[in-house]
Amino acid sequence: EAQVTQNPRYLITVTGKKLTVTCSQNMNHEYMSWYRQDPGLGLRQIYYSMNVEVTDKGDVPEGYKVSRKEKRNFPLILESPSPNQTSLYFCASSLSGKNIQYFGAGTRLSVL
Amino acid sequence: GQSLEQPSEVTAVEGAIVQINCTYQTSGFYGLSWYQQHDGGAPTFLSYNALDGLEETGRFSSFLSRSDSYGYLLLQELQMKDSASYFCAPLSGGYQKVTFGTGTKLQVIP
């Protein structure tokens, strides 16, 4: 089954404790992206990747890192999480040149 | 800069037709996508317009006017399950820069 898989689905952590949210897709998509969704602010793009080793900043990249060492994986790294990064995070992927993005189920993160 | 405007909330009656408007301002515009998101769920793709005009997919249609930087999503024969948030998402900047905005929350009432 074609899908985008995020882990974990729920995470509670404390300020400053490094964490990684994993994202994997099995559709051989070149493009992958991370979004955060906050009430009243909608979906905002954090980082995106056009292909392996090619990443670029979205609208709200501060406090986040990404890497794209393999085509299928695009982890989101929070080196020193802060409470303002409490949010719902979505990973998405699409074929290069295609407009349809497939989203993972989301990761709800709480930073205390 | 970039801007995106949609109504925040819309209420419509089951079986009726509803139109959700979207105006955008973005450089390097490629096209306009629409996504649906139910509460607690992930966004799912509905429709895409690269050219001016109407695209129809079942009960859903989407329209684009590039000269007016305007589009809309038309939902016909509304069903209760259509209650969800709808996002217009302009594509720009090398085809993969996607701006979603705050979306429109549609409530379908009996």
Largest interface, C-beta closer than 8 angstroms, per-chain residues: A-B, 26 and 23 residues
Order of helices and strands of chain B: EEEEEEEEEEE
Structural class of the helices, strands and pairings of chain B? mainly beta
The N- to C-terminal Cα distance of chain A equals 36 Å
Q: Can you summarize the main beta sheet of chain A? A: 7 strands, mixed
Task: Provide the β-strand percentage band of chain A.
Answer: over 45%
- Our count of helices of chain A gives 0
Structural class based on helices, strands and sheet pairing of chain A: mainly beta
Number of strands of chain A: 11
**Which whole number gives the mean pLDDT of chain A?**
94
Radius of gyration of chain B: 13 Å
Mean pLDDT of chain B: 92
Q: Tally the beta strands of chain B.
A: 11
CA-atom Rg of chain A in angstroms: 13 Å
Shape of chain B: globular
For the termini of chain B, the CA-CA separation is 41 Å
Helix content of chain B: under 10%
Which runs of chain B of at least 5 residues are low in confidence (pLDDT < 50)?
Answer: none
Apparent shape of chain A: globular
Which assembly state applies to the chains in this document?
heterodimer
Describe the structure.
The complex is a heterodimer of chains A (112) and B (110). Chain A is mainly beta and 112 residues long. Chain A is built from no helices and 11 strands. Chain A has strands spanning 4-7, 10-13, 19-25, 31-38, 42-51, 54-57, 65-66, 76-78, 87-94, 102-103, 107-111. Chain A is globular, with a radius of gyration of 13 Å. The model of chain A has no long low-confidence stretch (mean pLDDT 94). By secondary structure, chain B is mainly β. Helix content of chain B is 0%, strand content 57%. Chain B has no helices and 11 strands. In chain B, the strands form 2 sheets. In chain B, strands 2, 4, 5, 9, 10 and 11 form a 6-stranded mixed β-sheet that branches. In chain B, a hairpin with a 6-residue loop joins strand 4 (31-37) and strand 5. The radius of gyration of chain B is 13 Å and the shape is globular. Classes of the chains: A mainly beta (112), B mainly beta (110). Chain A binds chain B through residues 31, 33, 35, 40-45, 48, 50, 58-59, 90, 92, 94, 96-97, 99-106, and chain B through 30-31, 33, 35, 41-45, 48, 50, 87, 91, 94-103.
